[in-house]
Specification:
The chain is an alpha+beta fold and 150 residues long. Helix content is 45%, strand content 17%. The chain has one domain. It contains three helices and four strands, in the order αβαβββα. Strands 1-2 form a two-stranded antiparallel sheet.
Length: 150
């Protein structure tokens, strides 16, 4: 695996986690939005990732030549497959004075759970930091290689 492949893979992870963090921030910002463009309450968004290149397991397997250090297939990182809306209904709270209350006086709030969003945010932040660490390690290795070559 080349230096550039490492940078390409880690940068794809950085982009993916940045998008995930943006979606989480949007979910948290709309935690009390009872009326969205489509008329109902806001529905939380989530992202689905997919690996690029071949299956990641093929990278971990020895090559046909028997050399376990040789990568056997293309490795391309991660990409966003799609952004999905969570269709689970949000909580209904009795508040007849609310402008979005139904005939019975109930307001349907977004299906955003702050605890879940904060947990997802911590996970995305850790993944982002891990990809940054890989880029820093690759940079240090490349600088050491240049230093040895002098």
């Amino acid at each position: 695996m080349s230096f550039w492949s490492v940078l390409r893979i880690s940068s794809s992870g950085l982009r993916a986690q940045r998008l995930r963090l943006d979606l989480i921030a949007n979910n948290v910002a709309n935690v009390e939005t009872t009326r969205s463009d489509d008329g109902g309450p806001y529905q939380r968004s989530d992202v689905i990732f997919r690996e690029e290149g071949g299956p990641f397991a093929s990278v971990l397997m020895p090559s046909r030549s028997g050399d376990p250090r040789r990568v056997t297939g293309p490795v391309g990182g991660v990409r966003v497959e799609k952004i999905v809306r969570d269709s689970e209904p949000g909580p209904r709270i009795y508040d007849p004075s609310h402008p979005d209350a139904d005939e019975e006086g109930y307001v349907t709030y977004p299906n955003v759970n702050i605890v879940v969003e904060m947990t997802n945010m911590i996970s995305a932040t850790r993944s982002y930091e891990a990809n940054l660490s890989v880029i820093e390690a690759a940079k240090r290795l490349a600088l050491k290689a240049l230093e040895i070559g002098r």
